[in-house]
Amino acid sequence: MYNHGEGMEILNDKTRGVDQARDVLSGLFRQILYDVNINPFAWHRLMERFMNNPRHMLAARGRSRSSLRGNMRKALLNTTMSWKMFERGIYFLGPVEATFTTTLKWGDGRVTVHSRTINLEMVGVDAANFGKDDDDEE
Fold first, then answer.
1. Do 34 and 91 touch, CB atoms closer than 8 A?
2. Could you give the number of structural domains in the chain?
3. Domain span at residue 17?
4. pLDDT for 66-116, tens place per residue?
């Protein structure tokens, strides 16, 4: 019932398609889908929560819900992902906080760790244009 649409087979894949990702952010997003067990049923629940969130004012947008679902699915399950789309994907998943940490190993043996926490309420989510980055052509 919930496995309709292009790309949804990833959610049934044992590894959530991590090995098919073509960049780091898409791979990390797919790894998160795997780690928190986002299957087609869970994806459907997340989508319904997103669609019914009053913050997105979908009724005022005049866009069909099925079109928005398709745009979001294609953008979030794509084999490549921009930083902006990655942030939107994290927002879509619904954690209360997201902290990103990078560990760098230097040639002189040093290891440095750098972290930033994202305020998910500040992630720019325009529901009507969810699948587009600002630099996408219209």
1. no
2. 1
3. 9-95
4. 777 888 888 899 999 999 899 889 989 989 889 999 999 999 999 999 999
